[in-house]
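Consider this:
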Amino acid sequence: MNNDVSSVKVANCLTVCAKVLIAFVTLLVVASFHSQATAAETVMSDNFNDNYANSLLWSTTNVVGTGPSLSETNQKLEIYFPSFSNGSAFGAGYSSVCKLRGDFDVQVDYELLLWPFANGVRVGLAAANLGSPAAVERTNFSANISNDVPGWPREVYLAHFSDGVNGITESADFAGKLRLVRTGDQLTGYYFASGGWVPINTAYTSTNDTAVSLSAWSHDNIFTGQDVKLAFDNFIVNRGLAVCQGKIAVPIDIKPGSSPNSINLGSVGTVPVAILSTASFDATQVDPASVTLSGAALALKGKGTQMYSLEDVDADGRLDLVVHVTTSALQLNENDTSAILEGRLYDGTLVKGSDTVRIVP
């Protein structure tokens, strides 16, 4: 799936860069996280519109070296390199706290806000726990050509995988999209052009659970000492199982068809909750008897029959599990804005999901 230049490996002067990427992305990895899965097909997503660093989704202290900074502002995740930035490896970024298990498909938008030519900064979407580089990049090779891939264009897309750097493709894009897809033990990187995804390279990869990072980085011998600013936006995990503190994150929809999800804690009724099936998760494998929503177990009817059903709530052709919990048993208060569902699969695997709520009188 390589393009015409992707078979050329630029190994010699990128040996240091490979070590820098592994070390930098490793610094962005953390171990635990509650996924904020949406009620749609996406496993995880963040459009950064709230200008708030969501610690449930991201590790947000990932700044390495001197100078770089990051913040959620202007409804984006912005990363800034002042001209004095330095360090053997320096940069900033977010890393997902949940890890993706099995096949996955993840993408993000980027924008180059202040981008001097040949500044030496790399912008990447990376998988962080695969034991070798696993990044798709919009890269700016340095004006210090002898230190940074001589003989190639300065503004490029590339994939940096287990087989080295491949698919170097010249680009004038100051905004675009990056994508990583793992299928089995194969990892493919893409960029977006002319209304479609363009594959850069495919290579062997580990099947380990992996965090995902959004980051930008450089190091002393290639950074050209100019102010650089860039932004990420519209992060989406389209496919994959998110594992958070040993639990699979599942998409749920409280009160399907209702928005906002208003709950009167004084009601004597029940609250319906749909656990949604996706391309990578079968909600029919959840044991209904194990499900709780913010501490409330399944409601009973008649002769003690648990209230649940299998139905296609979101009209995607897949059966979802709909459970009803007793409203008065919910351990919520008037200030709560989300409710947490927990349960397990029939095989004992733990699951967890969340959705927004609005508590009303």
